[in-house]
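Request: Could I get any protein with tokenized structure?
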Amino acid sequence: MNYKAPKGTKDILPSEVHIWQYIEEKSRNILEKANYKEIRTPVFEATELFARGVGDSTDIVNKEMYTFEQKNRSLTLRPENTAGVVRAFIEHGMHRLPSPLKLWYKGPMFRYERPQAGRQRQFHQLGLELFGVENPSADAEVIQIAMKLLDEIGLKGLSLEINNIGCPQCRNEYKNRIKEAIRPKLEEFCQDCLVRFEKNPLRILDCKNEKCRNLLALPEIDSIISAEFICEPCITHFEELKDYLKTLNIEYVINKKLVRGLDYYNRTVFEITSTELGTQNAVCGGGRYDPLVETLGGPPTPAVGWAMGMERLITLCEISGENPLDVFIVSHDTKQAQKLAFKLRDSGISCEFDFSGRKFGKQLEKASKSGARFSILLGEEELKTGILTLKNLLTGEQEKVSPEEVYQKLFH
């Protein structure tokens, strides 16, 4: 039987893993400079955590979760990580730490959906969460860091879309307004939207069905949806955020239909998109989720964050090949070759040797195919004198060097 990776999953092979490592290292560097600390949470949590946190009206909870029973308890592979980070924040009393508390994470997430370019059933996210700051300066910081990170890894054609979906209080009026606008055309919307109409009409604005999107664009519907609805404090918050973005020279577009796909958001929501992608063009999404900590049993705590899909970043990231090997050791004496390899590696030189001790010609051929920049010839004379022969595999030039001189010859 020929085994294959399950549908919607993908092996990350050595030939491409360096791209992942590059993005992860860039991210770590940028986030740590901004005082974000890494957190690692379990890949599965109690199912009710996601039902309460993400929202039982979302597609994620209704259709996409991998859920299993274990000793009469329902557990779910995490479809996103904010709920898990908030659970850890509450469980470990992090609200008692000085504010703001800044956390970041990376790792696999799981959603049962149709696999497509940049979207898998097991996918990976990089994200951050900032707890304890109600001021829109926190919103501006997380947006600025996201834009900085995407720019640093070389993404092109980026655009920031922002919206204000209000607080739970003023949003109730908006939900009623959406229902009023859609009701005359309700039967023409998809089956999912009929359910959303009853449970959470705001989710209709996030529907990816083309027919539904066209219906939302009708003037008689769009005019009602796009009209202002948020309360004065929410308006003030949004205006201040725009001022912060202007100060940071971050351009943005206001998208009144941007709501994001998760129930825990309030006030600020945003997406960063790329013109290099098709219809599913978001590379980063996030926003403010002030009610979530309290919803999950913690004290009232303002919070804001975002997540990026690593697979989408990979498709857009133009990174050259793997780092070349520095040295390939050619020798008939495998023991001495291995001893030298360990010594060179300890001094910071990447190297490999031939485990078989074959003829020099075959080993040199393997050295060339390895991508190494240099080979070290360790024959009888070299073993006797302790002086190595260093060969440039690009130019063919050779010279005699001591083991202590190898690093200097390679990097200076």
The two ends are 53 Å apart (CA to CA). The chain is about 40% helix and 20% strand. The chain has two domains: 14-158+251-316, 327-411. The chain has a mean pLDDT of 86.
